Amino acid sequence: MEFSVRIPFVELLGFKLRRMEGGEAEIGFDPSGEHLNSFDVVHGGATMTLLDVVMAHAARSVEPSMGAVTIEMKTSFMRASQGALTAKGRLLHRSATMAFTEGQVFDAQGRLCSHATGTFKFVPRLPTGAGSTQALNRISTD
Q: Do residues 59 and 94 make contact, with C-beta atoms less than 8 angstroms apart?
């Protein structure tokens, strides 16, 4: 499954969108050496990005024509993440402009490694490309 928007940082990390429907999303991540910290486990920043992206996609799964920008995120790390990871996101509640979500990261053995909650704001996606008046995919967050 392809991501519906181009996110260069997500491409760099190598995330793979597996599912995005009905208020849920799932993303796979096979970290390489560049994604590790000094303890040889997945860096917390990579894990937080994974959680952020999976929660945003869970929110957008019910409103795919809109973008979702992060307003707030809280992350708890339960165990070190190693090897192939699976992130699952779920939309808990939404209003006309906001989405309240949670996400979890599991290792290959199915053990919960981290959990997050996030609040996202729905924003209109701007057209990009040759026929667009927008040079870049910029959005107003005000």
A: yes
